[in-house]
Design goal:
Chain lengths: ~325, ~280
């Protein structure tokens, strides 16, 4: 419990830093938000522009503006979208977050369930054919642009073979399907996006797992376990694997920003209505309040992911709690 | 310095490093001699040959305006290389300065800089880049700068760690005790010895900058048409995915090869600098 409180207290300066940088990004815009409504309006005179700027507090010094903006952020008030619907930004984001998180969690599961076995077998059979082939694939995997991979898969499975739908989250006739049919429909739409979003992580994680495992296998306690006469299976899966898995928890936390950031690309390509697509649309039409909202929430989610990883680590490895 | 005969000898024997270097050199030549190499001008529109599949006259096909895909890809090489180099130049410079200050002075300075690094790492980098581009507008220069200022954190940590350890070495302590100025110690004594890992990080950084640029251009927020870039060529590929596969396949292969080339070179340099680190 004390560990938890300490960790959360440590997060506060980082959170403040996040808001300062976000605010700085916002201030980078040439002109200010009011120029959208004043520049092309023939009825505007200098007096009116001044009044509008005063109304939005833009005539105040920047630190006063920042404090005010920070207050709104803390109250989760991101303002109203500049888009035609003019809805509160928080509503727009919260209805789209679940899809993004769902896809990211599913792809994390995929990443772990594929890369851990690959990493372990590559390490145990170092320099075998399997190790060489998987290392080569991993090396190529690092260099593949995910959006290109998405295009290739769309051509293969969507256009040539016609097995999977290439865009959207559900079919047009979704509401007429049986509940089972609906689940099937969504899963068919999600196969490619999940694979694409997991791909980058797959390469990195397999490689990381391999080097972890190689390091652990060389430790004295593994030699001891072997010397005791334990069979290789027990040595690898019980003694070595457990220790090699520990650092993966940290990597899990570190991979959150990459996954969330990557959602912009695959959600845009596959036309999935998640937070990434909303962000892309907002960028394209300069919907500043929504951009700022997603930027802050994205960073906060990362921070939360890191906290989760820290807690998980301290639960899995009691040494951390003692030494901290 | 680290670029001694030993290093060169190990590089020569390292097949991966040489292959990577070969790819990079070829890309440079392609970018420099783009006008001589490409069969057509990159923006040459041929309305009688729209979306033609690969043939002898257009080896990689043509796009929606009948422009030659091969010629556009050749001209895209320069874009991708210059973005890679300038962006990494910026990020390496920022990272080295902040890392050096943080590692050399320590204390409060160090805490502030490292907290700044933590904060920057919290932003999904693609979100941050897109947000800044949304505010400052897309152009090739803005992309270079934005990629540079959002990717210096790794270098900063690396340089700081090097400074922390080199600072304690005898020759630095000797310089300090002789009363050498901070600037002299930082630039003359410590920095040259901290450059090796920076070189590796910079080479790998070019690979990731190329990837980011192509992603941004693909989303339409990077290099703007009609200027050709591998990323914005793929956008056309996506728009015509059901009829013209060649628009999607070839530019992606160019990105893949480039990124692999830099990755191979970077890892090769790392292995040659310190063979003990090899895994």
């Amino acid at each position: 419990m004390r560990f938890l409180i300490k960790r959360i207290a440590l997060m506060i300066p980082t959170l403040i830093g996040i808001t300062i940088i976000s605010f700085a990004v916002m201030k980078m815009a040439p002109g200010d938000p009011t120029s959208l409504m004043t520049d092309l309006n023939p009825n505007m005179n200098e007096e009116a522009v001044k009044r509008i700027r005063a109304h939005y507090g833009l005539d105040q010094p920047w630190h006063v503006q920042y404090i005010k903006w920070l207050g709104n952020m803390v109250a989760l008030d991101f303002g109203k979208s500049f888009a035609a619907d003019n809805r509160p930004v928080l509503d727009k984001i919260s209805e789209r977050i679940p899809i993004t998180i769902l896809i990211n969690i599913l792809s994390l599961i995929l990443i772990f369930s594929v890369s851990i076995p690959i990493g372990v077998f590559s390490a145990v059979k170092q320099d075998s054919l399997f190790d060489r082939v998987s290392s080569l694939i991993v090396f190529i995997g690092f260099a593949v642009p995910t959006f290109w991979l998405a295009l290739l898969l769309m051509i293969l499975f969507g256009v040539k073979l016609d097995w999977l739908p290439i865009s959207g989250f559900r079919s047009l006739n979704y509401s007429y399907l049986t509940p089972l049919g609906q689940i099937l429909d969504i899963s068919k739409h999600l196969v490619l996006p999940i694979f694409v979003s997991a791909f980058g992580g797959l390469a990195g994680m397999s490689r990381y797992m391999r080097s972890n495992m190689l390091e652990v296998i060389r430790q004295d306690y593994i030699t001891t376990a072997r010397a005791k006469g334990l069979d290789e299976r027990t040595v690898i899966f019980k003694h070595a694997l457990r220790n090699a898995l520990l650092p993966l928890i940290t990597i899990l936390g570190l991979s959150v920003p990459g996954l969330i950031g990557g959602s912009v690309i695959f959600e845009t390509i596959f036309a999935i209505p998640g937070m990434g697509q909303l962000f892309y649309q907002s960028v394209m039409m300069r919907d500043y309040p929504t951009i700022m909202g997603i930027l802050v929430i994205g960073a906060a989610l990362t921070l939360f992911g890191n906290l989760l990883a820290d807690l998980l680590y301290s639960w899995a490895d009691p040494r951390i709690r003692v030494s901290d | 310095m680290f670029l001694n005969d030993d290093f060169v000898r190990r590089m020569r024997r390292n097949g991966m490093a040489m292959a990577g270097l070969g790819i990079v050199v070829v890309l440079f030549c392609v970018a420099i001699f783009a006008n001589q190499l490409s069969p057509y001008p990159p923006s040459h529109i041929d309305t009688t040959n729209i979306l033609a599949p690969p043939t002898w006259s257009h080896p990689l096909g043509t796009d929606v305006l009948g422009r030659d895909v091969l010629s556009r890809m050749i001209h895209g090489a320069g874009v991708s290389l210059s973005v890679g180099f300038v962006a990494v130049g910026i990020s390496t410079l920022i990272g080295m300065i902040l890392g050096a200050v943080s590692g050399y002075y320590g204390g409060l300075m160090d805490r502030i800089v490292m907290r700044f690094v933590d904060v920057m790492l919290c932003f999904p980098s693609f979100f941050l880049i897109l947000a800044v581009i949304a505010f400052v507008g897309p152009s090739i220069w803005n992309i270079m700068i934005v990629i540079g200022v959002t990717s210096w954190m790794g270098v900063a940590r690396l340089v700081r760690a090097e400074f922390l350890s080199i600072r304690e070495r005898d020759f630095v302590q000797a310089a300090i005790s002789q009363g050498a100025r901070d600037g002299r110690i930082i630039f003359l004594h410590i920095l040259p010895n901290a450059l090796a890992p920076v070189l590796v990080a910079a080479t790998l950084g070019i690979a990731s900058a190329v990837l980011i640029e192509s992603g941004l251009s693909f989303l339409g927020i990077g290099v703007q048409p009609p200027d050709p870039s591998w990323g914005n060529m793929l956008t056309e590929g996506k728009d015509n995915i059901e009829i013209a596969w060649w628009l999607s396949v070839y530019p992606g292969m160019a990105i893949l090869t480039t990124v692999m080339g830099y990755n191979m070179l970077g890892e090769g340099i790392r292995d040659s600098l310190d063979p003990r680190l090899r895994r």
